[in-house]
Design goal:
The chain has helices at about 20-25, 70-75, 110-120, 140-145, 165-175, 190-200, 235-240, 250-255, 260-270; strands at about 1-10, 15-20, 35, 45-55, 60-65, 80, 85-90, 100-105, 125-135, 150-155, 165, 185, 205-210, 225-230, 230-235, 240-245. The chain has 9 helices and 16 strands. It is globular. By secondary structure, it is an alpha/beta fold. The protein starts with a strand and ends in a 5-residue tail after the last helix. The strands form 3 sheets. A 7-stranded antiparallel sheet has the order 6-1-2-5-4-3-7. A 7-stranded mixed sheet has the order 11-10-9-8-12-13-16, with helices on both faces. The longest helix has 14 residues, at about 110-120. The chain has a domain at about 1-90: Translation factors (Elongation Factor Tu (Ef-tu), domain 3, Beta Barrel), CATH 2.40.30.10. Helices cover about 30% and strands about 30% of the residues.
């Protein structure tokens, strides 16, 4: 059992939790994730490790309420125990002294961007962060990210805060300003990552994306999380979740993410926590 140490609601449907997981906290690196089970016969869901404290033995996760399991998770409180937390899983973000890096986070993907920004800065890079949301009310982690990067640009789709437009528009403006960008990291909704790669591809800027395919066992056995990268099948759980965005087949990823929409909606409607 893993005790929930702290719980904070960041926006209407987004929560941050600190969970006791000392072994994971001691080992995890940026880009890695955990698989969480709220109950013994429950679903296994992958969630990125946003932060950790090895001394306290805790990890921090951020999740959006979208389905049965995240509804159940959001209903849990401080002091409650999760049935299982497995990790750290996945390949850590490749780190190095790249130069000027731009990390783009959209929606709840901002939570995934946070540890990457922190690790890149610790490695000595000049880090520009671009974060965006549909509206100001659902923007998360602005103050936290501002503290760890060299420059932060915020955008909202509706213009309620920051730059009026999409994060892809902000990145395009930076590129057109003739800024030298050595590497881009993108985390967010699939359409956002796809369009962002379309922006960087003509300029040959290496772009790393963090993928979120359907995942079951997270050990490379089931094959549910397979994605096509450069015409080859990759397993996001053990070979990712990060890949070269210019080589990802985003259309295939999108179609696979829609495979169980009806079943997911039926499960969500049947969740007692939603009543």
């Amino acid at each position: 059992m893993n005790r929930i140490v702290a719980k904070v609601q960041l926006s209407e449907n987004v929560f941050k939790m600190m969970v006791a997981a000392p072994e994971i906290a001691a080992q995890r690196k940026a880009g890695q994730f955990v698989v969480i089970m709220t109950e013994e016969k429950g679903e296994r869901i992958p969630l990125t490790i946003v932060d950790s404290d090895a001394q306290k033995g805790t990890i921090t996760i951020i999740f959006q309420v979208v389905g049965k399991t995240t509804i159940s998770l959001a209903a849990m409180e401080e002091g409650d125990n999760l049935f299982a937390v497995l990790g750290p899983l996945g390949v850590p973000t490749e780190m190095g002294l790249f130069g000027t890096t731009v990390v783009v986070g959209g929606g709840v993907g901002i939570g995934v961007a946070y540890p990457i920004i922190k690790a890149l800065k610790d490695a000595g890079n000049n880090v520009i962060a671009i974060i965006g949301a549909r509206t100001k009310d659902i923007l998360i982690l602005e103050d936290d990210i501002r503290k760890i990067c060299d420059r932060l640009i915020v955008s909202t789709d509706d213009g309620s805060y920051g730059v009026h437009g999409f994060v892809t528009d902000v990145l395009r403006d930076l590129i057109e300003s003739r800024m030298v960008i050595d590497r881009v990291f993108a985390i967010g909704p699939v359409p956002m990552m796809k369009f962002l790669c379309d922006v960087t591809r003509p300029h040959n800027i290496k772009t790393i994306v963090s993928l979120n395919p359907i995942m079951v066992d997270a050990t490379g056995m089931c094959g549910a999380c397979r994605v096509s990268v450069g015409g080859e099948t990759k397993l996001a759980c053990v070979e990712g979740p990060e890949f070269d965005g210019h080589a990802v087949d985003f259309d295939l990823l999108t179609s696979r993410l829609r495979m169980y929409c009806d079943e997911e909606e039926e499960a969500r409607r049947g969740c007692k926590c939603h009543e």
